[in-house]
Amino acid sequence: MALPPLALSLGDPAGIGPEIIVKAWLALRGRGAPFMVIGDHESLASASPHGSSILARVGSPQEACSKFADALPVYDMPLGVAVVAGHPSSAYGGAVISWIETAVGLALSGDAQAVVTAPIAKAPLYEAGFRFPGHTEFLGELTAQAPMKGPRGPVMMLTAGDLRTVPVTIHEPYAMAPSLLTRDLIVHAGEVTAAALERDFGLKRARLALAGLNPHAGERGAIGREEIDVIAPAAAMLRARGVDCSDPKPADTLFHPQARATYDAVLCMYHDQALIPVKMLDFWGGVNVTLGLPIVRTSPDHGVGYDIAGRGLARPDSLIAALNLAGDIAARHRANR
User: Fold this and answer.
1) Residues near 87 by Cβ (< 8 Å), separated by ≥ 6?
2) 329 φ/ψ angles, rounded to the nearest 5 degrees
3) What pLDDT does residue 1 have?
């Protein structure tokens, strides 16, 4: 019996999502795991240089797999309103949310190997009533009742090349990050990350590094006490629970090649501390992975790109990497059952 496809939600139809999806299919149709787009057929047709001639509406995941080599399978959930590339609108919000929910439902039922999500923009969704900071938190709620082994997330991880970073605080104002950091929050992120690196990435025993919050990791309290009061105690708690974890290290010395060879992932204390090194290492090919879910989920590590939407300029590298990684993790899960 053929394996089910990956479920790829279309994301914001006014962004670059439709364009990079078409380009990803053109690159992957002869190799890799097949995928099925959950979204609006007309948005994809408008973004395709070949129009609808390379698209195929499908009614089931099985049909998608049989057609993938010859056409981009689309599980059509029409918008019902016209899309203008580069112009966000809350009118799309309900559909975008429904596409994500449908993709997750397919993965939970086993009708999809994994979920891959094209970029969304927060503001139009908030205007449509979306109440989550982003995909990660929404996916956590959608899968909260499903059984799983190991510590439960969701925890966001970014990966590029040999670098994996985990922001402990995520979509929060930078000024709030120090007050939001707690020992329990760091320990939870560390336990989920270590378990996922072993389960999803096949590592025998994950090695974690902790980035300090302050310059020079606080200089023994001379430049801030968060390392002494919060981060180092969290590292000790992780080690007591069997996780190989360093004490907090200065963030400015953690990301060069020699340092990367000493760990498998870095727990970072705030959003940009985790994302800047990933994007410096591979701006076009980074991937966002959600750890600690009962399903596999990846996404490209970039936004909706309204400024270039509809102009044929968007690169699909990150989406291709996300699709490939989702297929690899799903295959590893099957092999370990």
Assistant:
1) 14, 306
2) -65, -45
3) 54
- Cα dihedral 248/254/260/263 (nearest 10): 0
- Report pLDDT digits (tens) over 239-262: 999 999 999 999 999 999 999 999
The whole domain housing 62 covers: 1-147
CATH number at residue 64: 3.40.718.10
Cross-strand pairs, 155: 291
Running DSSP on this structure, what letter comes out for residue 74? Answer: E
Bridge partners (DSSP) of residue 260 are none
Return d(Cα 112, Cα 34) in angstroms, integer. 10
Sign of the Cα pseudo-torsion (146, 148, 151, 156, in order): negative
Residues 200, 259, single domain; the answer is yes
Same domain? 69 vs 131: yes
Q: Tell me if 325 is assigned to some domain.
A: no
As for how many domains the chain has, the answer is 2
| Residue closest to 36 by CA, chosen among 125, 95, 81, 102 | 102
Looking at the whole model, is its pTM more than 0.90? yes
Q: Higher confidence at residue 336 or residue 266? A: 266
What letters, b where the CB count within 10 A reaches 16 and e where it falls short, cover 48-60? beeebebbbebee
CB atoms within 10 A of CB 332: 14
Q: Is there a single domain that holds both residue 137 and residue 164? A: no
Burial of 329 (0-12, 13-18, 19+ CB in 10 A): buried
Find out whether 118 and 299 touch, Cβ atoms under 8 Å.
Answer: yes
pLDDT score at 176: 94
Please classify residue 212 by burial: count the beta carbons closer than 10 Å to its beta carbon, then call 0-12 exposed, 13-18 middle and 19+ buried. Answer: buried
Secondary structure class of 189 (helix, strand, coil): helix
Q: What's the residue count for the chain?
A: 337
Question: Is the pLDDT at 154 greater than 60, yes or no?
Answer: yes
The Cα–Cα gap between 253 and 258 comes to 10
Same domain, 42 and 73: yes
The predicted model gives 156-160 an average pLDDT of: 97
